[in-house]
Write a structure and sequence with these properties.
Elements (H helix, E strand, L loop, with lengths): L6 E8 L3 E7 L9 E7 L7 E2 L3 E3 L5 E6 L8 E9 L8 E6 L10 E8 L4 E7 L12 E9 H6 L6 E6 L3 E4 L7 E10 L16 E4 H40 L15 H26 L1
Antiparallel strand pairs: 1-2, 2-6, 3-4, 3-7, 5-6, 7-8, 9-10, 10-13, 11-12, 11-14, 14-15
């Protein structure tokens, strides 16, 4: 019967491989109506029923959650039929190019490096994660840089810079070290690849400017005293080692009363006695010869 089929059928792929499909109950569907979703990711794959339904307060199926979805160049087929004890339920069919319903993840690793002298900031990032795109040139980016001080004051003339670019970097040339800024980026197809033409998720805002400089100064306040203390300790150890080596090489004064003489007096005395004894024997022999 007319009005019993589902309405507003929408599917979205997010976080690379997750997909949610939702719908509204038909206008004339009864409370006991129950819907069932079947889908075929591509013509080479089998039709399978949803394994994880989303339900409303009446227990009716109003959506389905999928995992491990791969996109590639797939034209998926969806079928939603229903049952009711009171009336026949119309079926709903739809074909969808999966890459067209992907919500791209935010660009990765947003990095900011500012130079105060040139009043410029270089901003870099990596492409969003996808399951089927390997070419970095398939994306274009929208970058928004906002002066946070102006935003907090809610001034109508808040300085905000917007740009659409096809590179993975951007040069911001209105930087002032006394201000705080934030930057966020999102991506979409560059119109030459099988990528969604809808803008993806915004990256988490990255702040730079005053806060960055303050944090660096605070870091230096702890670093410099630490280096100075380490240098003083090193000098003290060096002087101590030097003095220890110098004192070890200075000769000590000799004590003539305690230090043993290099001459062996006992040995010399014995030699002297032997020498005298020999002379006495010679004298006696000469006396006997005279007699």
């Amino acid at each position: 019967m007319n009005g019993t089929a589902i309405e507003n059928f929408v599917c979205v792929i997010f976080n690379v491989s997750f997909m949610n499909c939702t719908w509204h109950v038909g206008r004339t569907a009864t409370e006991d109506t129950q819907y069932f979703l079947y889908w075929r990711p591509s013509e080479k794959e089998d039709v399978t029923e949803c394994q994880n339904y989303i339900k409303d307060n009446c227990g009716r199926h109003i959506g389905c959650k999928f995992q491990n979805v791969t996109i590639k160049n797939k034209n998926a087929y969806f079928l939603v039929n229903g049952t009711s004890s009171e009336k026949s339920i119309q079926s709903y069919e739809k074909r969808i190019q999966l890459y067209q319903i992907e919500k791209l993840t935010p660009p990765l690793n947003v990095t900011v490096n500012c130079t105060e002298a040139s009043r410029r900031c270089s901003i870099w990032w990596q492409p969003p994660r996808t399951s089927h795109v390997k070419n970095r040139k398939c994306f274009k980016y929208e970058i928004v840089i906002e002066n946070k001080a102006d935003a907090e004051k809610n001034t109508k003339t808040a300085s905000k810079t917007k740009a659409i670019i096809e590179e993975n970097s951007y040069l911001y040339e209105s930087f002032s070290s006394g201000e705080t800024y934030s930057v966020k980026i999102r991506a979409r197809d560059v119109d030459i690849c099988l990528v969604s033409r809808n803008w993806g998720e915004w990256s988490t805002p990255v702040e730079f400017g005053t806060q960055q400089l303050t944090s660096t100064s605070s870091y230096m306040l702890f670093l410099i005293p630490g280096l100075a203390a380490g240098l003083v300790l090193f000098l003290c150890m060096t002087v101590r080692i030097y003095l220890k080596k110098t004192s070890a090489t200075v000769p000590q004064p000799r004590d003539p009363f305690r230090e043993t003489s290099p001459v062996d007096f006992q040995k010399e005395y014995m030699n002297l006695l032997k020498k005298q004894g020999t002379e006495e024997i010679i004298d006696i022999e000469e006396m006997m010869e005279c007699k």
